[in-house]
């Protein structure tokens, strides 16, 4: 699994006055896709938190190429682009149904932290699974 595809349908309340998906919703959809990426690898984010492991966002970026609107079915393609000692960078591409070109691209960087928000090493079981998934070409 070099990437994970998460499907989301744009709800009416997620659009703005112009009928276009509100720009900040893409960050919410990125979060949902990232959570499901972890789940696909066998990790549940809430279990990280129960162990005192947090993943605050250190950086977020979106680039918008085309709009989505009410009832569009979107695919948020999520992949891990980089892992360092205590951080991980996810990249995202958002596609409309049956479109080959992304309408939005972006990334988020997260720092593995303890409950005091001090950086910690990425847990080895997760690091191994992500590295293995990345070899799945």
Description of the structure:
By secondary structure, the protein is α+β, with helices and mostly antiparallel strands. The chain has one domain (4-134): Hotdog Thioesterase (Thiol Ester Dehydrase, Chain A, Roll), CATH 3.10.129. It is 24% helix and 31% strand. It has helices at 25-40, 45-50, 124-134, and strands at residues 4-9, 57-64, 73-83, 87-96, 104-111. It has a 5-stranded antiparallel β-sheet. The chain is globular. The termini are close together.
Topology:
Elements: E1 4-9, H1 25-40, H2 45-50, E2 57-64, E3 73-83, E4 87-96, E5 104-111, H3 124-134
Antiparallel strand pairs: 1-3, 2-5, 3-4, 4-5
The CATH topology is what? Thiol Ester Dehydrase, Chain A
Number of DSSP strands? 5
Instruction: Give start-end ranges of low-pLDDT stretches.
Output: none
Number of helices: 3
Keywords:
137 residues, alpha+beta, Thiol Ester Dehydrase, Chain A, five-stranded antiparallel β-sheet
Quick synopsis:
This protein has 137 residues and is an alpha+beta fold. The chain is built from 3 helices and 5 strands.
């Amino acid at each position: 699994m070099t990437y994970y595809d998460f499907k989301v349908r744009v709800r009416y309340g997620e659009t703005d006055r112009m009928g276009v998906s509100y720009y900040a919703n893409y960050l919410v959809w990125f979060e949902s896709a990232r959570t499901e990426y972890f789940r696909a690898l066998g990790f549940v984010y809430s279990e990280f938190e129960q162990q005192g492991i947090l993943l605050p966002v250190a950086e977020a970026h979106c680039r918008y190429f085309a709009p989505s609107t009410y009832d569009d079915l979107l695919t948020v393609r999520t992949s891990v682009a980089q892992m360092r000692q205590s951080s991980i960078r996810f990249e995202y591409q958002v596609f409309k149904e049956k479109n080959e070109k992304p309408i939005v691209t972006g990334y988020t960087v997260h720092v593995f932290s303890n409950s005091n928000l001090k950086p910690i090493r990425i847990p080895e079981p997760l690091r191994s699974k992500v590295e293995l998934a990345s070899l799945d070409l």
